[in-house]
Amino acid sequence: MGVNVLQALSAEQTKFKDKITEDRFKYKNHILDLSQPINEPKFLFSIGDIPSIPASELIGIKGRAKQGKSQLEYILISAMLSGLSKGDIKPLQPHYKILLFDTEQSVSSLKKCCQRALKFANLPTNQNDVRFLPFFMRPLTIEERRQIIEDAIKEEKPDIVFIDGVRDLLADFNSLTESNDLIQWLMQLTAEYGCTVVSVLHQNKSKEDGNMRGHLGTELLNKLTDCFEVSKKDGKFLVTCTDSRNVPTTDFAFSINAEGDFQMEETIDESKNTSRVADIQRVLQLCFKDKPTMKYGQLVEAYQMEAAISERTSKYRIKEAKENDFLLVQNGYYSLAPISG
Q1: Domain end point (choices 250, 268, 286)
Q2: Which residues contact 141 (CB under 8 A, 6 or more apart)?
Q3: Is the distance from CB of 68 to CB of 61 less than 8 angstroms?
């Protein structure tokens, strides 16, 4: 009996030592293997002939209240369901599975939006479509919303998930801890289930501040692959890719006509993308406010800080500024070009 006890104890000690050894080397699972080929991103759309919205990434849609943030979701959904281009928006996959979680609208408003998307895709508006599952989440608690989202993603295996009202998945969007926890959870969903997650969030109310609200908006921007801003002018919704880890897309526009249906529109000035160009000029003025000249690297950093965008997008905006003759370059130093007229 004593021998059996000692043998059992020895076996348990061996197991414990093996577990310690395994835990010690877990870090090796996260070492990047540079000998493996690079997996180029798979994009879900082409917008203005530029690949956009990669698979398994976080995407953001921002805008002020009633400026058309949600409607952009339904335009993208229409393109995916129809399999056809909608203006400059071209779906790159033959089939999609789409989940939409709405925390803000009433049942009737949500239904109207879904039916508008189905009609624009030339599909019946009074029938469900297994490729598109909208969820009404407004009455639920934060915990219930998050649980339903994760359960649905796990079971339905979507290509893309829209969360309209991501700030309703935490109690305080100014809490750094809550914001980080939510963003980590969203990133975990993309990694574990291979789906793209599109989050819709309000911008700050100030017209001079185009950033997304609260700590949630600040931290989310750092993790997004693409971010689109929606604004409304003269009855048209103008969409601008304000930040991208790849190549930013061109602007595009759409509207809702008197019958309540979507229609694609021309941008105000397609050759120069007026809204973006005006924003570039505004940010450049801020960059050179206290320093009349600077080296390229300094300008990239200053533009990145003033516009709250990635380094890649900052370089792209500076390139656009040069093409539009907003900058002078002399002996390696950049300065603002004189305003003509």
Answers
A1: 268
A2: none
A3: no
pLDDT above 70: residue 336: yes
Structure letter (DSSP) for residue 224: -
5 within domain boundaries: no
What is the spatial distance between Cα 276 and Cα 324, in angstroms, rounded to a whole number? 12
Q: Which domain holds residue 314?
A: 276-336
What's the average model confidence in pLDDT over 245-261?
A: 92
* pLDDT tens readout for residues 125-168: 999 999 999 999 999 999 999 999 999 999 999 999 999 999 99
The secondary structure element, H or E, covering residue 211 is none
Tell me if 20 is assigned to some domain: no
Residue in this structure with the two tokens 């940010």, named with its chain if needed: 283
Average pLDDT over residues 257-263: 95
CATH number, domain containing residue 156 = 3.40.50.300
Domain co-membership, 264 together with 280: no
Contacts of residue 115, defined as CB under 8 A and 6 or more positions apart, other chains included, come to: 125, 126
Whole-prediction pTM value? 0.72
Q: In this structure, are 193 and 302 located in the same domain? A: no
- What is the count of structural domains for the chain? 2
pLDDT digits (tens, 9 = 90+) for 292-328: 999 999 999 999 888 877 787 888 889 888 988 899 9
Please tell me the predicted confidence (pLDDT) of residue 208: 47
CA proximity to 102, closest of 152, 67, 64: 152
Task: Report the alpha-carbon distance of residue 226 to residue 203 in Å, rounded.
Answer: 16
- Amino acid at the residue 92: L
Identify whether residues 96 and 167 lie together within a single domain.
Answer: yes
**Two tokens, residue 296:** 């390229």
Pick the closest to residue 256 from 120, 163, 108 (CA basis): 120
CB 273 within 8 A of CB 76: no
